[in-house]
Amino acid sequence: MAGSRKIVSARELDLLRRRVTRAGKRIDLTAKEFALLELLLRRRGEVLPRSLIASQVWDMNFDSDTNVIEVAVRRLRAKIDDGFEPKLIRTVRGMGYVLEEQEDE
Amino acid sequence: MRPVRRKSLTFRLTVLFAAASTVVLLVLGLIVAESVEHHFEEQDMEALTGKLELIRHALAKVHSSKDLAAIPQQMDDSLIGHHGLVVAVKGPDGRTLFATEDAPFPQRLLDRVKTPEAERPYVWQVDDQLSFRGIVAEAPTGVQAWPPAVVAVATDISHHRSFMDSFMKTLWLVVIGGTLATGLLGWFAARRGLAPLREMKRRATEVSAQRLDQRLPVDAVPVELAELAESLNDMLARLEESFKRLSDFSSDLAHELRTPVSNLVTQTQVALSKTRSSTEYREVLESNCEEFERLSRMISDMLFLAKSENGLIVPGQESFDLADEVTALFDFYGALAEENGVTLRLEGSGLVTGDRLMLRRAIGNLLSNALRYTPVGGRIVVTVSVVRDSADADTIHLAVENTGEPIPPEHLSRLFDRFYRVDASRRHSGDGAGLGLAITRSILRSHGGDIEGRTGEGSNIFEMWIPTLIVTPRSTD
């Protein structure tokens, strides 16, 4: 599973130019999508609650009762997971989201 | 030490009534006594000066020792019928020329003859019973070489004295009687006059936590008390309001907690009723976790509201542009709005002094509320404007207008009450506990501002305002 290893490595994430490639394909992300992905990557394997994501990515330090984060994650997924295997971002019900640490096999 | 006793109003009024009437009676009595006395004195003086003139006239006609010797006889004749009148005449040789019997002129009166006081009446007593008022004067004789004779006349004023004595006695009796009578009448008057106060007291004792709706009768009490009754009624109204809020608060809380907790219990019990696969357990735990999260959010929101209503939340004082906050929030809600097919627009800007995080939360709640009720294809417009109140004070207005079905007016004012929902049965899964707008309002109130909702043409507008001091804007580069 070389492809998945590549995207979770920082080499595929061009922080300066905010560019992401997966399986050699260029993916265009908005600034906030990029920030979200960066957060998930930096803390991969860790389940991040919605409130933490809201505060780290958008600087919103209050609990919003809307599904803003769900929408944002869904959009990010559509770009980096749709059409690729395995899926990277996993929803942990009742807790939040996690970018799975991929095992070398 | 004895505790200081507070005197009753009735007692005070009684004492004041009595004191006032005593003073008036006393002053009146003393004035009357004084004028009676004065009148007596005038009467006496008239008689005395008349008699004095008569004697002087007689002495002036004396031209020889023979004439002088005839004077006593003349005196006797002219004094016939003048009861109570005493006269003494000292001849030029200094010896008593004539004196009525028992003419008890004191030496002090006779000594006054050469002083300016001679013509003024002098009062003295004899044997503690008889009182006299007398004057003394020099009377030159017709013989130039002789020194003038000295004439003293006086009248018995014992009857005046006894009249004045009994008058004063009566006066004192009247004053004492009057004081007692007005005291008693004053007491009755005060009790009658204060009857409305006792009625108010009686009504006030009826007020209790269960009967906070009791009010004092404003129309039935005298004008002076009406204001007091009104302020007491206002106080009662405020108390009733806060009491109601408090009891609503706890009943709301209980009510809002009951359903989710009983759901949790049921769900957990069902899961435990038989052995299940680990996937099934996991599902139950996940679902419970979501519910717990919702509950915990609601509890912390309630805590925030409770603190804020008790004035425990002190907003920071930072100066920033509200439009920047709206832009950040648009960034946050942008994706959601896009999914819902709602466009977001910002107009205007305005510097505000306040707590950035709290105000961001306040506006955020308004936006998420607007997003929830804006139909697909709708629009949310946020307008920031500044109204100059005075040289150094502005009011920042921020209006969130969203297209959608206008909220019925009966709900508009209550939207900011906690747990209030326009449609009680409508509860989207994404909905909060109905505390968002209540939190927004409490944040604004802690900033000295407020919020109100109104309806426009096919839209709803929530307008908040915050009074703010003008800060000189930093120069932009």
UniProtKB/TrEMBL annotation, chain B:
**Annotated InterPro entries:** CusS-like_sensor, CztS_silS_copS, HAMP_dom, HATPase_C_sf, HATPase_dom, His_kinase_dom, HisK_dim/P_dom, HisK_dim/P_sf
Keyword list (alphabetical) reads: ATP-binding, Cell inner membrane, Cell membrane, Kinase, Membrane, Nucleotide-binding, Phosphoprotein, Transferase, Transmembrane, Transmembrane helix, Two-component regulatory system
Main EC class the enzyme belongs to? transferase
- Matches recorded under SMART domains: HAMP (SM00304), HATPase_c (SM00387), HisKA (SM00388)
**Which reaction(s) are listed as its catalytic activity?**
ATP + protein L-histidine = ADP + protein N-phospho-L-histidine
Q: What is its main location?
A: membrane
Q: Where in the cell is it found?
A: Cell inner membrane
Histidine kinase domain location: 252-470
Q: What does this protein do?
A: Member of a two-component regulatory system.
Name of the protein in its database record: Sensor protein
The organism is Zoogloea oryzae
